[in-house]
Design a protein that fits this description.
The structure is a single chain. The protein has 999 residues and is an all-alpha fold. It is built from 37 helices and 2 strands. The chain starts with a helix and ends with a helix.
Length: 999
Amino acid sequence: MRITCVRAVLILVFLFVPTLASAGGNPEVGLPKVDRLIKDRNYNEALLALAEYMDEHPEDFDGAQRRIRRIIELRESYNTKAEDLLKVLTEEPTNDKKKLDMITAMEALEKNPNPSTQNFIKDTKAAAQFTFYRAKFDEIMRDGNAYIDSSLYANAARTFAEGYIIYKQEFDETSEPSLVASVDSVLGETGTLIASFEASVPKLSEAAQLFSGVLREGSDSSLPPDIERAEAVWNSLAVELKRMSEIRNRIAEIGWYYEDVFARMSETDEIVTENSFLPFAYRFTLGRKTGFRYEGILGSIDALINPVLAEVDALCAAALDRSWQSAVRDLESGALSSGTARIAETARFAALGSAFVDTASLSVYRDDTWGRTDRTGSSTLYVHAAACSGILNELAELAARKNDLDSRVPLLPEDSPNSAAFRGGAVRFVTERDALSKEAASLEQLMLQGRDDSRNALSAASGVTTGFTSDIERWNDTLRSGLADLQKKVYTEAVLWYASAAGNAIGERRVSWSDSLALLEGVPQPDSVTVFYYPAESLAAFTGLRSAAAKDKTSVQSALSWAREIPARFRESEGIRSGITSLESMIAYLDRLDSDIASASARANSRILQANLAKQESELRYSQALASLKRNDFQSARDNLQRSREKANQSLSWQESKTFRTETDRKLEQLGTDITRTENEAVVREVRILISSGKNFYYQGNFDQAEQVLNQAKARWSVTNIEPNVEVTNWLAIVNTALSMKTGRTIPVSAPLYPQMSQLLSSANQLYTEGKELIEKGKRTQAIELLTQAKEKLQQLKLVYPLNEDAGQLTLKIDQVIDPAAFKVSFRQKVETARATYRSEPQKAYSELLDLYKLDPAYPGIKRLVDEIEVYLGIQIPPPDPKALARSSELTRSAQKIYDANTRSMFQIALDQLDEAIKLNPDNQNAIALKDRVQTAIGGQSVAVLSGNDEAKYQQAVLELQKGNKITASALVEQLLQNPKSRNSAKIQDLKKRIDSQL
């Protein structure tokens, strides 16, 4: 029963609206779907959904009934609003706003009324909208224009933007969604642009006021404003103008967008009329085309920008004119520097004006945009001003050149005709005088025909009437009158100046030639002995000189050609004739110089070649020395090292090179050190062997052999060491002492009288033998006679060799045979005499004692006496002294500490200690072995090769000695000996000995 009632109510409700909309395909079902349809004002669809719901859910009668009552209430409210609308139409027919508000309320209550009601509402709404919106349009336009007139541009823009609501709802409901979305986006952007415009208004106004204030400065005194401040302030204004132009242009584009969309829709849709959103929107944006004033949002912006642009345009033009007039006044008063600066300033004002025109031209327009300004005239003005500034600047340069020429004819001191002026500005000097003299003759024609024509053409083409051209003409006339007689002054001064300047320059070329040639022919050094040759440097100098001389010749020839073209009336003057003659003589000299340079360059190349060949051989010898050192062929290494040194010096004698000299000295010295160090290791071993051998020979009494071996050790040591080996020296002293004590004891086979002495000794021996035999036979008288003869022969031998061992011993034997008893007494006396006299007459006492010892070695005390004398004489090493042994060990230990610590700076001290230790104890093997190790570690001190400078000085000393200049040679050697390295050169030491021996 309840369901039946509900369905009956649904039928009644449907009767309010005969036409029903079909249900959509909404995925919602049941009461939620009904609720959504009620919210969307689709009551018919909601009722259909309720009927379906009740068929499916009869148990939910209450829920359906509540929704039916809601629909009935809403439709009753709609009917009430409809009755109120009818009443307003009757009682208040002109109250269009109230009508529209009520219609809006009804549309909010019912989305799909019945067709008759819908048509009535539509017609009523359209009529009310037309009347209301037209009135609203006029009101907005009136209020917006009033704001523009009051300079409240942002208020005006916001006021015009209020009109975008007119017909907007209808537009949204009837237009394509994409178009609605596009329009909504543009409307949102418009709001943003108006806000940006409002924010930019005070900034633009402030920047414009500041710029205008700067441009007005100095107007009372006819002086231009400060261009730098104007440029700086303009930059700020330009930024604001550009920003405002961007806002303005975008507003214009938006308005044209509305206009263009409406035009396209009008062409395709007859329903679209002027009473719609788009026509109203573009008018609120762009203004009315028949308004003849700034209107709309765009007009609000243009009303602000265009007066600013007009004021700036006028101020820029005024500042430009003041700057130009200041420049002209300065130039005509002779203040060229200030005038030129003013010209540059004028050009900058012209550029500033052009920048303004460029900025002012940023605004985009359509042909029907009100307030459009043509700035072609302004643009042409600034272009014309820039061109005229350039012309005026050219005239200023001509005036400056004229003044410069006036100041230099006659020449001023700073323009003296020196070589610097010749090379830096000589050609310019003459060319300038030539040009200026010709300008003085033809400048009037040049200005009247060429530049006047170009200025007139520029002025005619510009269509702008300014005083720029007349100012130029006036000053042009002044210049022409001042230049009229300049050519009367310049020719003679120019020729004489150039001849003098070129003469000074050519004089320097003579000096350069002399200096360059000196490099080839030798540069004496401070020592007044050494001469260095620099062919490579001289060749470079020759090349540079040749090029420079060629340039000088070109300049002189140019001047000469110019001088020969001087009008005859000037060329005949004595000054010009002499100048031309001088220039001709310079050309001749430069031709000879070129030939001399070519010849000298060939000599330099030859020397360079010889130097390079010697250098290459030096390198080859160096490589060979290295190879020999690797083979331990020390002699070959030394020979090649010396040859490398000689070839390097030969190369340096042809071509001095500090780099090559330094590098050669370094690597040859290093290689020499390596050779000496490496060979020294062998020398130390060999010398040790020779010392041991010499000692053995000494101990064997073979003093001659000992001396020979020790001299070999001495010679071998000197190969790598400049200082003598103390141990070798000590042993040689011992051996030489022994030899000296025995000198004359024997007769060398090589002695000149050896045959005669041998014959005397042989005859004496024969007589002694025969006499001894006669004594034994009892023939004493005959024996004494023979023995006496034998002694006579021995006396003859002793006259030459008084200490001869054979003669002395044979004499003693003869005395013993003649009188044995007396001989015993004599023997004893001779022994005692030797004991008493060996300190005063060591050689004689030692020799006679040896003869006695040989005859009777068993004689009591004789052996001890021989040993005593030999120790005294140094022939025999004394028995070890415990103190000496202890001291020797102590010195050895001290040296060992130095060696172990590797304190190389004290190695020489260690060597001295070891030499002393060995001298105290010749058998100290520890000292001997340590000494060899220290000497090996030290390396040889002998210098294998001299530096380049020292080698040259050494060769010079040898040459001086050969010439007989011993004093000079000695002085050179003494200089060499001042160098510690050269002091250790064996050949320098040998040369010193040779020189000293001849002094």
